[in-house]
Amino acid sequence: MTTYTDKGPKPESGRFLCFDHVTFWVGNAKQAASFYCTRMGFEPLAYKGLETGSRKIAAHVVRQNKIIYVFASMLEPFQPEECGQHLLKHGDAVKDVAFEVEDLDAIFKRAVERGASVVHEPWEVSDDNGSVRMATIKTYGDTTHTFIDRSRYTGPFLPEYKLINDKKDPLLTNLPEIGLLLIDHIVGNQPNECMTPATEWYEKNLMFHRFWSVDDKQIHTQYSALRSIVVTNYEETIKMPINEPAVGKRKSQIQEYVDYNGGAGVQHIAMRTNDIIKSITNLKARGMTFLEIPPTYFKNLRNQLKNSKVEVKENLDELQRLNILVDFDDDGYLLQIFTKPMQDRPTLFLEVIQRNNHQGFGAGNFKSLFEAIEADQAERGNL
Ligand SMILES: [Fe+2]
């Protein structure tokens, strides 16, 4: 495991602030949004579709604190063609990861000058709440990044969407609160040999820098291995780990993702909570299912913690009962857990993470996590 201290030169203009929202292209946006609401604790925020004058795309926007997901589906046969092709190839998948930025034009111009492919030149949309400026470029696979400058906008999401604040879903009002606060990191899986080029794309075009990395000598099981580099913006408010498979005895879980996704794409979105025990207890009460960790993991953990300076405040029996993983060093620890895939294809899954003075990504857990994933992979006949 390597941590980096060199942030590289500070960009002379433009600033990345945070993840703005994530757009999923799915077969049935109405139902996908409902699943994330009932199972994951999101609430309906906004909508666009035929009733609002959006003739080609229906989009349902859901929110939980600072996390906003947009589920979009095409309304007509074969249109927009790109949307249909994306669905055929990837199934329900993340299409766009949007960043809130300052000085969008500077960031866009620099990225394009340095070689980023343009998907959408800067454009502006407005309503009674002001105006928003956006631009979109291509990153790995068929995934895109949209830059959003909302400094002259006071609305809760974006123009062209109708807000949902009238009818409260009677089911949601009866479900326990989850408390996911913000997006902690978003991971992109790459085919073999594509991690370094994807990393360099962020370094060159967005002026991101390396934050953390692991290689296959550090992260491997009997069967499979993985390499990962985390890139981040100058202020280190946006973390994007980039993974690739490494050759093992059998198929890497990253390779399984790449096969089922049809190339590179977003593998998981990690969302932060301040109370993971409450979040996971309530997610399980809502019927969410998570990776199960072998009992030996917690036995080893208790032994390792005895020899460590760090004190985990949470009750270990409770963490074990909920299958929550712990990674730590002398200064702090993190708690994390991973859902099973969120759709039929073994592609995207979600992570819930709580940080206690620890900025890692759970490298200490990768091995046991891999073993848990491999057990599921074997069940799918893919190991
Ligand atoms: Fe993660």
From TrEMBL:
Pathway annotation from the record: Amino-acid degradation; L-phenylalanine degradation; acetoacetate and fumarate from L-phenylalanine: step 3/6
SUBUNIT field: Homodimer.
Lineage of the organism: Eukaryota, Metazoa, Spiralia, Lophotrochozoa, Mollusca
Xref: Gene3D superfamilies: 2,3-Dihydroxybiphenyl 1,2-Dioxygenase, domain 1 (3.10.180.10)
Top-level taxon in the UniProt lineage: Eukaryota
Catalytic activity of the protein: 3-(4-hydroxyphenyl)pyruvate + O2 = homogentisate + CO2
Binding site for Fe cation: 185, 268, 351
Name this polypeptide is given: 4-hydroxyphenylpyruvate dioxygenase
Transmembrane segments: none
Note on how the cofactor is bound: Binds 1 Fe cation per subunit.
Record family assignment: Belongs to the 4HPPD family.
GO biological process, one term: L-tyrosine catabolic process
UniProt source species: Lottia gigantea
Classification via CDD domains: HPPD_C_like, HPPD_N_like
